[in-house]
Amino acid sequence: MKAYQAFNRRFSKKSLLEIYHRYIMLTPSTGVDGKKANESFDIKNEIEIIIKKIGDKTYSFSRYKEKLISKGVGKNPRVISIPTVRDRIVLKAIHLTLQDIYPECSKTLIPQLMLEDISREIKNHDFKSYVKIDIENFYPSIKHDILNSKIKRKIRKKELIYLLEKAITNETGHIKPEKGVPQGLSISNILSEIYVKDIDNSLVDKKIKYYRYVDDILIFYKGLNPIVPLDNIVASFKTIGLNCHDYNQIGSKTKYGKLTETFDFLGYEIKNRKLTIKKESINKIEKSISSIIVSYKYMRDKNSYNINNKLNLRITGCIFEGKRRGWLFYYSQMEERQILYKIDKAIVRMIKKAKLENVFKPKTFAKTFMEIKRNRLDNHKYIVNFDGYTVDEKRKMLSQFMDNKVLATLNDVNINNIFSKRVRHLVKDLEEDLRENS
Predict the structure, then answer these.
(1) Which residues contact 28 (CB under 8 A, 6 or more apart)?
(2) Which residues are CB-contacts of 71 (< 8 A; sequence separation ≥ 6)?
């Protein structure tokens, strides 16, 4: 789709209203102005302001609120930029516009598709060695002038170029960036994909199989000594200002070896040419399940129905807003099912140790894995499909958390909004188990 067509489509009043209700409303984030995307937010007036200011090129993003996320001892924290509600609407519209213009850059952001291909290609014994490359400070290192020149190859719409330049140069906290793309914005990932797309395209070679997910790169090589392709790729990224970790340093994230060795990628462990799960990832999910079980002892209002649902949701994951979410959905390409049986046994032991056999009736990872492999997930109830809930089913679920007299006063629109907010909260918990996969 051409840029002007995509822009006009996404920045219409109808589209901006839909963006607000679908992506922004009832999400908890607040920017520097403290406004929330709730029932009191004057969305119609805000859309009028957005359209007017973009039309006369006076739209200005409010300073992004700064949020720091620890990366561990001895490392600088990750800086997350949080926009205001109005700016989030505009940024999401830009994001959708870029998806229309660069559909190929959206596909690379789905790790499961990549991992499915890795699972298949690693069994090709023509490949003898591997290379893992990690790009240093990926988002903060992106050069604005190079990104702008790449964007302008395909985009001529002045309003869109203006908004993009404003968005990436806007202050986070009190720091105005001279380079880099702010992390946490809806446009951050697709802009980074546009930035490195040319390099990705140049690495289609019969002697190597190349995969990149954000700043993590994996290569399968037909020879036993992959130093030459490794050096060439590192040099390619350097031409656009991106430095890779030095593979000569002890403990470097960039490394290479034979495909008969054990190594990890995106939370998976690759062993004997099969995909399995890193021990750290197993420990993390077991710890999160243990915390649910132990928390029951300290609950004032002990509701076994709620706590069981929470435990089973952690095990099975769910479907929400058209996406498959949860720990096992992410690891659905793993090839060692015995790991799942071990986790299931560990859960039984936790419950027994806590003497809560009468409270918890857990589903199993092994059964969930079998269900995930089915072609359709919308015709059974083992894995929760929140997208298929009727209004009555939503009321029933909300009755576990709200007073029935209050629920009776709410219309269907209110019920849908509250239900979505509640499920987003549950999904956020699920995604905690998937952080730092690389």
Answers:
(1) 36
(2) 77, 78
- 0.90 surpassed by pTM: no
Instruction: For residue range 199-208, list pLDDT tens digits in order.
Output: 999 998 878 9
Instruction: Work out the average pLDDT over 347-372.
Output: 94
Paired residues of 404 in beta bridges = none
Residue 122 backbone dihedrals phi, psi, to 5 degrees: -70, -20
Closest CA to 407 of 384, 424, 391, 426: 391
List, as one string, the DSSP characters of 325-352.
ESHHHHTTT---THHHHHHHHHHHHHHH
362: number of Cβ within 10 Å? 19
Mean pLDDT score, 27-43: 91
In degrees, rounded to 5, the angle at the alpha carbon of residue 233 between the alpha carbons of residues 227 and 236 is 140
Q: 249-289: per-residue pLDDT in tens? A: 988 999 999 999 999 999 899 999 999 999 999 999 999 99
Max CA pair span of the chain: 70
Which run of H or E residues covers position 114? helix 111-121
Q: CB of 156 within 8 A of CB of 255?
A: no
| Owner of token pair 């790449």 | 150
**What DSSP line would sit under 28-41, residue for residue?**
----TT---SSTTS
* Bridge pairing between strands 255-258 and 129-134: antiparallel
DSSP per residue, 261-310: S-EEETTEEEETTEEEE-HHHHHHHHHHHHHHHHHGGG-SS--HHHHHHH
**How many whole angstroms from its chain centre is CA 216?**
15
* pLDDT value of residue 289: 95
Question: What span, in angstroms and rounded, lies between the C-alpha atoms of 88 and 69?
Answer: 20
CA distance 10 to 268: 37
Tokens 């089973």 correspond to: 312
